[in-house]
Amino acid sequence: MTERFRPGEVWLDTDGKPIQAHGGGVLYQEGTYYWFGENRASDPDAGRSWRGHGIGVRCYSSKDLHHWKDEGLALPPAKDDPTSDLHPSRVVERPKVILNENTRAYVMWMHIDSPDYKAARVGVARSGSPTGPYEYLGSFRPNDADSRDMIVFKDDDGAAYLFHASEWNETMYIARLSDDYLSTTGEYAREFIGESREAPAVFRYQGHYFCITSGCSGWAPNVAEYAVAESIMGPWEVHGNPCVGTTEEIETTFHSQSTFVLPVQGREGAYIFMADRWKPKDLGDSRYVWLPLEISGRSLSLRWRDEWNLSVFD
Ligand code: GAL
Q1: Would you list the domain boundaries of the chain?
Q2: Counting Cβ atoms within 10 Å, is residue 94 exposed (0-12), middle (13-18) or buried (19+)?
């Protein structure tokens, strides 16, 4: 059977269970892709009423991007410690993992918050193996700034950066990480000032940096926008909405919100836009929308496809 991506459909893992990796990101390492994301499956063991918050970070592995094996909870919740950032009553969102080539540590960054989203912090965890278990190191406000939706991006020269929505989500901060990727250095830039962009997905192609974001409307989808820069700290030039299609598709980003752009290994110019189609009343049934990005110089386009596979990049 020819495998296909089916955006918006239920996506089962190799055990036949729906994949739980929302707000996710993918790390590629020695022939294997690792998909990390929010585990939002209802958990009867959590000992609490379901409030829609995540229960840890789950990891899946794949060689072909179609078949995903559940590697379990890379960062489990701290069910018995109400004071922990990882207690199921708290918010753990948008986990992203990068490998530090010097320390050989896999470093996970994530959005940590209180149920009212006022804590606005980032959390950091570390592991010697991609699938974990990750040791949680704690949370903080990068450069003393509030931090909600975020991503970490590792550049070709090994330097890594945290993009985070700050100033009550009005302005995006780009903060350089320390050499060990465990903290920020103090060097940062304010970009998209007052534009209220979130859900950043960052990648680099042919020397250009691209950042796709959503607007701020909670779980409800809205208009995507992308920006391009020649230097990661900016200036970033806003280019508009990459979506091409019906008015509804364009205004809702195909009913989804960006989370990551996945470079397909060994295929020049092949990048997959990864997004979440959130279901606020049943977050565990939120769907994944993966679509191929069309890149031409400094311009990006995204078109809906009911189903597709990697041959679109041929
Ligand atoms: C969105 C954000 C999601 C989640 C949600 C909660 O704006 O992108 O990651 O935090 O709000 O309402």
Answers
A1: 22-308
A2: buried
